[in-house]
Amino acid sequence: MVSRMKNLATTLLLLTALVNAKTNPADFTLTAHVVSSIAGRGHGGSLTARTCTYELRIDQLTYIAQQRTLQCDAAVTPRAELPAQIEKNKLKVMKSDGKVLNLEIIGRTE
User: Fold this and answer.
1) Nearest to 58 by CA among 104, 102, 108
2) How far, in Å, CA of 57 to CA of 96, rounded?
3) CA of 48: how far to CAs of 17, 51, 71, in Å?
4) What is the Cα–Cα distance from 22 to 48, expressed in whole angstroms?
5) What pLDDT digit, counting tens, does each position of 5-48 carry?
6) What percent of the chain has pLDDT over 90?
7) 97 vs 50, which has greater pLDDT?
8) Does residue 63 lie within any of the structural domains?
9) Do 62 and 55 form a contact (C-beta atoms < 8 A)?
10) Does residue 16 fall inside a structural domain?
């Protein structure tokens, strides 16, 4: 019985570590400066997804990224500085509450 409880406790600790590893602040080595955010309108009523478009400056590049959601995120406002990470055509920004916002990159400018 004790052995079974130790195995369960170990499994729970490992699962917790795996979940936390996805949002490790140390992985977000870039800083995104929010230049602008535009909330598009949904079609067909209030429960329809809308497109939120963000312009984010990282180093010398400005990324245009968007997200389809029911409500645009209030944490991504102009002049905000957010930890960021770029993976292929995805831009991830970490909000102050530790949650990650996944955005699709649709353009880049210098």
Assistant:
1) 108
2) 18
3) 35, 10, 10
4) 29
5) 555 555 544 444 444 445 677 889 999 999 998 887 666 555 56
6) 43
7) 97
8) yes
9) yes
10) no
Residue 12 lies in a domain: no
Virtual torsion, Cα 46, 51, 52, 53, nearest 10 deg: -160
* Residue with the two structure tokens 């292929």: 88
Beta-strand ranges (E) seen in the chain are 30-39, 50-58, 61-69, 81-87, 90-94, 100-109
90 belongs to a structural domain = yes
- The Cα–Cα gap between 32 and 56 comes to 6
Alpha carbon distance 14, 47 (integer Å): 37
Domain membership of residue 88 as a residue range: 25-109
pTM higher than 0.90: no
32: closest CA among 67, 58, 55, 53?
58
**pLDDT value at position 13?**
46
Q: In total, how many domains does the chain have?
A: 1
